[in-house]
Structure formats: structure tokens, C-alpha cells
Amino acid sequence: MLSAMKRVVGSRSRGVLAAVALVAIGVASTGAAQSPAGEPATAGAPPSLRVISQSQYRQIVADLFGPDISITGRFEPGQRPANGRLLAIGTSTAGISAAGFEQYEAIARGVTAQVVDAKHREALLPCQVAEPSAFDAACAGQIVNKYGPLLYRRALRSGEAASLVATAKATHGRLGDFYSAMAATMTAMMVQPDFLLRGERIEADPAGGVRLDGYAKASRLSFLLTNAAPDGELLRAAGAGELNTPAGLTRQVDRLMASPRLEQGVRAFFADMLAFEQFDQVQKDATIYPDYSARVAADAQEQTMRTIVDHVLVQKADYRDLFTTRKTFLTRALGGVYLLPVASRNGWEATEYPADSGRSGILTDISFLALWSHPGRSSPTIRGKMLGEIFLCRTVPPPPGDVDFTLANNLSDPKLKTARQRLNAHVVTPSCKGCHQQMDPMGLPFETFDSIGAFRTAENGAPIDTSGQLGNRSFADAAGLGQAMHDNPAVPNCLADNLYRYGVGRNFTPSETALRDYLRTDFQASGYKVTSLLRTIALSKAFYAVTRPDAAPTRTASLTRAEAH
Asked: What confidence score (pLDDT) does residue 18 get?
């Protein structure tokens, strides 16, 4: 019984999003004055239209209905743009295919069926009915008014609640059961553009130009800090106009940053930056690596995430120390790969890598080493390339189409036993040398770790040379690389750039060059504390700055399916 949706042909052939109106009032923004804290003025960018990510969808369901509501179904994979790398940027250009929309509908049906079932309805619904065979408009109204604003991330508009109640009543006439009718109505709400898309509305700015309305500001803030929709208090503040005042915005930023929900926001950002979703495609040769399993892969990601959360949120330590710290967390499954004892049969233990383990910092975690390797062998080139892209914000072009990889892939040549020897023979080709000189010196120090991240000292019986170079700095091993990363100013600069780009869902605009320098300098002044950088971004004028939609080419978006049932 899903409500009708407009068919609008989108610009992407693979399927597109439902149209969201962006209301522009007033004249083009003339730019904000420089703030007292020294933030440079920026012109902003047109309001965005973004698909909520899989992790955001899951988090919203958990926040609204509880963590025991299971989500079954397949989400379409996110897209990492070549220019920007982050999935968060890809949500601004991605589409929803017809098949993808059907999956959203199926997932929503599964969620809402649980919300209204006998096990959950008493806790999740604001009212109950004695006779489900009779339609109760008052109770339906309470349900719609409770979940409508939270799902749509804004106050319900005039007549919107009444329309949803009328839809529920019509559905009850066909199904004859109140709870089934409400499940169908909530399913319809969960496939509306207002839920699946983060469409931003703008309004006239009393100071001149345009600005995001309060609810759009609330969404930007909440998704940045918690990776989820605004809660009731933030929606209240948005509706009251409090987010348009420095004091009101500061209260909400401080409240969210003091909340346990901040951890889920930090986790989401680093999972995006580290490309952990790509573990779904990782395969290892079970004959060569019998210790690798789905459990190890999952625990490896959680190990790194626990290290990051403890470091940046609990300890509030220098971000750069993540590349040198030996503190970590292990399960027994991971201990088998790391060859470290773990007393607990189940659960996690805080520990440290031994000084002689060859490990130092998150770059020597299985999560990095196993993700960026081949199924049956390590790859200094891939590891070096991804280290540069993820942590230094470098871009390495793809190899030419006519490159001969025979030497690099020849594992049987008795004269080329190690990866270093094979790469040295391979990169004599002029078309390969330039890029490999960027990647290989950063990846070769990891060669004491095999394809799944287990430690070794030799390859094919030959000792491994782990020396490497980062810029003009040379080092002897992976620990030395970690220290070089710690000391390289490009590392924290890349983090600052990524966090802002993640929050706004786009790359920096030409007007934000000074802002980028400001954020980098502020991050440095804080002692490279990620929480300080988050707060600076969340309180900045630039984070909410917008121009009229007609100030740049407008992206058209649509859903390919107009209505269901």
C-alpha cells in the first residue's frame, strides 16, 4: 500500500533517487563575515542530496526501535569516488536502482513487522488497541506523530499526519488488523525520500542570502557526530531556531559530544576512511593460510576500531600516536595469528605488542595488512598505495593498460625469491617506475607480514629486507615507518581534510582553501586531538554554509518506482 511517488528521470543510468525539493528563498549568499575565533569566511556550496548509508540506516533503526530489531536483506554497495575516496562523498552522486529500492522495501517490511509484533509493541508503540480488528485513529495518530519526525528528521507538515492516518485506515480496511496496517504505514514511511535521502532545505538568512533550515543543520550535525538521525532534543532545538544562535548550537554540540553516541560517529568515520567495507570481498587461500577465517576478519576490524576509540575518545591522545602505539586489544582468534597468548576464551583483552614483535601502530594490525594483500601472497605495492591514499591523501594513477606483470608475479624464479627482488626487476620499465617509486618504499617494510598479517622473517627461504623510505626519510622496518608517519605533517593534515569532507559529503570548494588551512592549524594547536577537531568543525560556520541551488549545476534525482501495491 505504499504511497505514490513521483517518477523523475535521473541523470544516472543505473537508477536514481526520489526527487527532493530544495526550497531557495532570497538572494545568493554574499558570504559570512570572519568569525571572532578567526575562522575564514567561505561561500559554501549548494545544499546537498545524499543517500543514507547502510551503517546510517542500521544505526537509525537501532536508535529508534532498539538493537534487538534485526535487519535482513541486501543493501546496494556504496561508491567510492576516485576523487575523494570516501563513501560519504559517494553518497552525493550514488543512485538507488529499481532492485535496490525493492530491497529497501523488503528490509523496511522486516523491520516494521518486528516493531508491531507481540514481543515489541508494548515497548515501542505509544499505545495499544484492545481489538485489532477495529481501527483506532487516535492510536494511529500517536504512532505517526512519534515516529514521523524521527524518521523524516523534521517536524511533520500540516496535514501530513492526517494523511498517514488515513492511509493506515484504508490499509486496515483491506487487511482487517490494526497492527498490520500500522506496519504497512511505517514501511511506506521508510521508503519515502524523506527517510532514504538526506535532502537539505534552505531558507532566507536574515543577515542576507540563504542558510540551511534548522532541521537540515540538525541532520548535518547529528550524522557527523553520531552517524544517525537527530534525536528528539536536537529536533526540538532545530524547530525552535536555537541552532541559528551560537549559544544554542554550542549546547547541542557539547551535549552530543558528551553522549555515548559519539563513539558510533567516530567508528563510522574511521570505518569509511579505512575502507573496512571491502573486507566483504577479501579472500585468502585456505591451503596457505588455514588460520584466516571470517571470525578473524571481523575481529581484526574490531581490534583496530577499539584501539582508535580508546586512543581518540577515552585517552584523548595525539592522533599521530596511533602509528606508534603498541597498545591494542585481542581475542583468542586473533591471538592465533599474532602468536600472542589470550587468556579469555571469549571476549576482548587489552594488551600490548611485545617490543620484539615487529609491530607498532595500527598499520601493523591484521586489518590493514590482510585487507591490502593478494589471496595467496603479500603485496608491498598495494599496501604502499593504500597507505598513501588513506593516510596521506595521495592519489596514485592506475597502471597503464599495457604493463607486463610477469616478473612481479613470477613466484617460481629462484633468482627472485622476495617481493623486493621481483619488484626491482619489474620497475625498470619507464612507465612503471614513477608510480612504484612512490608506493613500494612505503610498502616493503611490511614484508615481514604475510598476506594475513602473520609475522615472518623470510620469503622462499631468503631473508626479508624491510628497509624503506617515506619522502626523504629512510627507516629499517615497519616500526620505523610508523614513526615516520607519526612525524610527517601530511598525516594529520589528511585526517583534518577527510573529517571535514566526510561531514559535508563533498570535496573542498575553491572558496574553502583558507578554511582547510585553518582546520589543519587548529588540529595542530589542539595537540592533534580528534575530539577537538570534531568540535571545531561542528561549530564552524563553514560546515553549515550554503549557496542557492542555482549557483551550481543541479543534480536531478529520482526513484524509478512510483508506487507499490
From this structure: 35
Which residue stretches of 355-455 are H helix?
366-371, 380-392, 406-409, 419-426, 430-443
Average pLDDT for the chain: 88
Contacts for 54 with CB less than 8 Å, ≥ 6 apart: 75, 78
CA dist., res. 491 & res. 188, Å (int): 45
The residue among 517, 515, 520, 514 whose CA lies nearest residue 533 is 520
What is the tens place of the pLDDT at every residue in 437-492? 677 889 999 999 999 999 999 988 899 999 999 989 999 999 999 999 999 999 99
Q: How far is CA 118 from the centre of its chain?
A: 34
Q: What is the DSSP letter of 62?
A: H
In the predicted structure, residue 72 carries a pLDDT above the cut 60 = yes
Nearest of 515, 514, 532 to residue 523 by alpha carbon: 532
Beta-bridge mates of residue 459: 462
Which three cell numbers, joined as nine digits, stand for 136?
483506532
Are 405 and 415 within 8 A, CB to CB?
A: no
Quickly list DSSP for 78-134.
P---TTT--HHHHTTT----HHHHHHHHHHHHHHHHHHTSTTTHHHHSS---S-TTS
Grid cell in block for residue 200: 537539505
**CB of 58 closer than 8 Å to CB of 68:** no
3-state DSSP assignment of residue 195? helix
Q: How large a percentage of the chain has pLDDT more than 70?
A: 85
Name the pairing type of β-strands 210-212 and 327-330: unpaired
User: If DSSP codes are grouped into helix, strand and coil, which group holds residue 287?
Assistant: coil
**Closest Cα partner for 322 from 537, 492, 87?**
492
Crossing angle of helices 137-152 and 178-190, in 10° steps, is: 20
DSSP code at position 310: I
Question: What DSSP string describes 269-286?
Answer: HHHHHTTGGGGGG----T
Nearest in space to 77 (alpha carbons), one of 94, 61, 92: 94
Which residues lie closer than 8 Å to 300 by C-beta, 6 or more apart? 334, 365, 366, 367, 370, 453
With a cut of 90, say whether residue 26 has pLDDT above it.
no
- Taking a C-beta distance cutoff of 8 angstroms, is the pair 296, 304 a contact? no
C-alpha cell at 421: 627482488
| Structural domain spans, the chain | 1-19+49-199+556-565
- Give me the residue label for grid cell 584501539: 307
What are the backbone dihedrals phi and psi of residue 147, each rounded to the nearest 5 degrees, phi first? -95, -20
What type of residue sits at position 393? C
CA distance 379 to 409: 10
Residue among 35, 5, 6, 38 nearest 545 (CA): 35
End-to-end CA distance of the chain: give it in Å, rounded: 5
pLDDT, one tens digit per residue, over 116-152 is: 999 999 999 999 999 999 999 999 999 999 999 999 9
- 559 DSSP 8-state letter: B
SS3 content of the chain, % helix, strand, coil (to 5): 50, 5, 45
